[in-house]
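Backbones bend. Shown next:

***
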Amino acid sequence: MSPVSIRLSTRVGGAVLAAALLAVPFPAPVQAAAGPVLPPSGGVVYVTNAGSGNVSSLAIGPRATLTLLDKPVSTGGETPRGIALTPDGATAYVVNSDSDTLSVFRVGARGALQPDPRIVKTGDEPWGATISPNGRTLYVTNTADATISAYRIGPDGTPTKLGDFKTTSDHPKQTVLSPDGRFLYLSYADTDETADSPPRVITRFAVRFDGTLGPAQDVAKVGPANYGIAISPDGAFVYVTSVEPQNVWGFRRGADGSLTPVPGSPFPAAEFPVGLKVTPDGQHLYVVGNDSDTDSPPGGLLGFTILANGSLRPTADSPAPTPDHAEVAAVAITPDGRDVFAAIRDTNEVAAFEIGSGGTLKEAPKSPFLTGGESPRSQSIAVRPAPAPTTPR
C-alpha cells in the first residue's frame, strides 16, 4: 500500500433548480437576524478534527499567536474534513466524510463556532467545501460518487440543494472558484495512487447565473494524487499539488477559463505536498510538506515567490520546519497576508508563522498551539476575516 493510502483516508471509496427559479434574480445577501458578528482583534482560525469529530476555534493574537476560544464543538458527524465560511464570517460549513453530511454552524460574538449545528445530507463521502465570492452558493465535492453538490445559501446561512453535477473522473477532492465566480476548477486524488499511476486531469465548470454548473470540461493534465488546488487572488494563475511524484503544477488562466502550463512547471516539493495557499497580494505560495523518513527532502511549510510569468522560486528559508518535521495536513493565510497557519496531523497542533520580507517565515512565539481535537486532515483549516489593524505590529 502506498504512503498516501496509509495517511490520508479512513475509508476507501441531479436534480437541478426548476426552470421558473432560474429566471429569478438572487436577493442581495443580508446579515442574519442576530446582527453583526464581531470577531476578536486579529481574526479566528478554525480547524476540523477528523479523529475526534469536532472543530476548534482559535483567536489570532499579536505576532500570529493563537488562543483556544472554547472547547471544540462537535459536528454531529464522523470524520470532518473541509471547512468554508461565508464572506461575512457569520456561518461555517463543515463536511463529514464518514457520515455523508454537512454541518452548518453559526459563529458567536467572539468568533467561536456555536454548538448544535444544523445537519444537511450530502453525497457519498464528502471531502471539500467552497463558497462563491458573492456568498450565495456552496459547492461540496463527493469523492465516492464522483459528484459536486451545489447549494443555494439563504439569508440566514441555510443551504438548499440546487443539484448534483457529475465530474469527469473518480475521487474529486478540492475545488476553487475564479475571483469573478464564473469558473469552478476541480482536482482529483485516490488514496491508492502512486508515482506509477496514470496522470490526472483538472476539470473546469462554467458557473451559471443561478449557481448551478455547466458541463464539465477537462482543461489540464497533472500528476497522480492531486489533493490541493489554489488560485491567485487576481485569477491569473492556478496551482495544484501532486502527492505523487511530489511537485506543484502551475498554470496561467485564460479569459475563457483555459489553463496553460507556466514556464518550469511542475516544480519540486517536499514529500507528501497536500494543501497550498496563495497570499492575498498574489506574491507568494505556501505548500505543506512532510519528512516521514530521513531519505526524503526536509518537511515543513514550503514557501515560493510567484514570478511575473507564474513560475515559482523557493523563498530563502524554504522550507520553514514544523516541530520534528511533523506531518502537515493543511494551510491557511490571514486576509491581511501577515500570518500563515499549518494544521499538524500527528500532534493535533497548529504551527503559526509571520510572513516577513521576501516571503520568509518567522515562527510565532510558543508555536505550535494545541487545538484540543485530534487528527486534522486535508482542507481542515480556515481563517475568518477580521478588521485590518490600524497600526503596524
